[in-house]
Design goal:
heterodimer; A: 234 residues; mainly alpha; MetI-like fold; 81% helix; B: 227 residues; alpha/beta; Rossmann fold; five-stranded antiparallel sheet; 24% strand
């Protein structure tokens, strides 16, 4: 069925996407929480900035990452000096590119779930002796969790498909940055690569479909369970 | 059901259960209430929309008054002039909300024990089995809130407030979602709490008969300032 190289491409894609989601998760949740709850001047601007990777040409996002994380970029220098890490032309860079591209989708899903949390329940927890942090950990977070999971799965699916920003930022290096879509594109350029394209494309469809269905199931759980509860309590 | 030391310990005879003088503007409505009461159960009585729930929210610390002072059983909870404003978790009130507000992701047992686990040991005046026996909710412990009837949910909400080691109780129209038989049952429970636990109760209702049966002191709430 699949050749060892093709298995390697799938494994790399899964690794890049998992790390991308793990990196983006805390940032996405924090942004979602701020956008759902806080009121401050410039909120519209922050909202727009978060959504920028969704609408910007991916090449531009990749080029901006290149500027920031390149050998002479401010973020690149800082990472190199603090941790001795370089992202350029590495799989870690592919993960960062995928994380940036997945962030808007993750924030959207999480923001909806945080907005759906009944704040009166948080008030009830406070009157029962729970401080702000405990209320967050034991009431807000568990109630928002289905949406957080849905956002993570959606981000994972988006990361698996990431192409433009990745190839711009970390190029196409087999075994290092050649993820599924990049490998498919490379195979398309090669005479006799049709069979590889077909196999990898089928893997892509299967992975994306599974992730979308998982995300939808989680979102449904979020939408239904709390609403049912409210109806009965009232 | 109450432990021996509960009823009398927290009251020198002249101590007021509630000394409340608050003003708060909500939207285009002014809510202003002033009263002192030494009754075991004090009722805020008035039509819907008069701001009764807002007063309870202010006493619980969920709504910040624009000015005034809130003292319950000798403890200052809010004093605008002295810049005192205890957060809700430091006020130790048992607030029974009109809509129950049970935590949907936790079992009845975990709802009941939520406040109990957080309360300092010396304030845990009742144990879980006492409260479940008292309220008749033993069979419900492993259920989820959304499977409860209105009356069951209301009893669990009362149980949760009692178990939290509350120094006083705030009851917001606890009978409004119940049919007559259930309401009568819960009213008997409230009378028992009032007479046996020695915890001051602030009770909100728009039902005159209910208030006259339960309250030692009735504070009318309507437009403007109350006496």
């Amino acid at each position: 069925m699949l050749s060892p190289e093709e298995w390697g491409i799938i494994a790399l894609s899964l690794k890049v996407s998992c790390v991308a989601v793990l990196v983006a998760l805390p940032a996405a949740f924090a942004l979602a929480f701020v956008l759902a709850r806080a009121r401050f001047p410039g909120k519209i601007l922050l909202d727009a900035l978060v959504h920028l990777p969704l609408v910007l040409p991916p090449v531009v996002t990749g080029w901006l990452l290149l500027l920031a994380f390149g050998a002479n970029g401010p973020a690149g220098k800082l990472l190199d000096r603090l941790f001795g890490v370089t992202l350029l032309f590495r799989w870690t860079g592919a993960a960062v590119a995928a994380a940036v591209m997945a962030l808007p989708l993750m924030v959207r899903a999480m923001r909806l779930s945080i907005e759906a949390v009944d704040r009166r329940l948080e008030g009830a927890a406070r009157t029962l002796g729970a401080g702000a942090w405990r209320t967050f950990a034991q009431i807000t977070l568990p109630l928002a969790m289905p949406g957080v999971m849905a956002g993570a799965v959606l981000g994972f699916a988006r990361s698996i498909g990431e192409f433009g920003a990745t190839i711009t930022f970390v190029s196409n290096i087999p075994g290092e940055t050649q993820t599924l879509p990049i490998a498919i594109y490379a195979a398309l350029q090669m005479p006799g690569g049709d069979a590889t394209v077909l196999r990898l494309a089928m893997v892509s469809v299967a992975l994306s479909l599974a992730a979308l269905i998982a995300s939808e199931l989680l979102a449904r759980r979020m939408g239904h369970a709390p609403a049912d509860d409210r109806r009965h309590v009232l | 059901m109450s432990s021996e030391n509960a009823p009398s310990e927290n009251a020198p005879s002249e101590q007021m259960s509630f000394e409340i003088d608050v003003r708060c503007r909500r939207g285009h409505r002014d809510i202003a209430v002033t009263f002192r009461s030494d009754a075991a159960l004090t009722a805020l009585f008035g039509p819907s929309g008069a701001g009764k729930t807002s007063v309870l929210d202010m006493v619980a610390g969920l709504l910040r008054p624009d000015a005034g002072r809130i003292v319950v059983a000798g403890t200052v909870l809010f004093d605008h002039a002295a810049r005192i404003n205890l957060p809700p978790e430091a006020r130790a009130c048992g607030y029974v909300f009109q809509d129950g507000r049970l935590f949907p992701h936790r079992s009845v047992r975990d709802n009941l024990l939520f406040g109990w686990r957080l309360a300092p040991v010396e304030r845990r005046r009742m144990a879980l089995d006492e409260v479940t026996a008292f309220l008749g909710i033993g069979p419900l412990l492993d259920r989820r809130p959304h499977t409860l009837s209105g009356g069951e949910a209301q009893r669990v909400a009362i149980g949760r407030a009692l178990l939290s080691g509350a120094r006083f109780l705030l009851l917001d129209e606890p009978l409004s979602s119940l049919d007559a038989a259930r309401a009568d049952e819960i009213m008997a429970v409230i009378e028992q709490v009032r007479d046996e636990l020695g915890v001051p109760i602030l009770y909100v209702s728009h039902d005159r008969a209910e208030v006259e049966r339960l309250a030692g002191r009735i504070v009318p709430i309507g437009e403007g300032r109350s006496a």
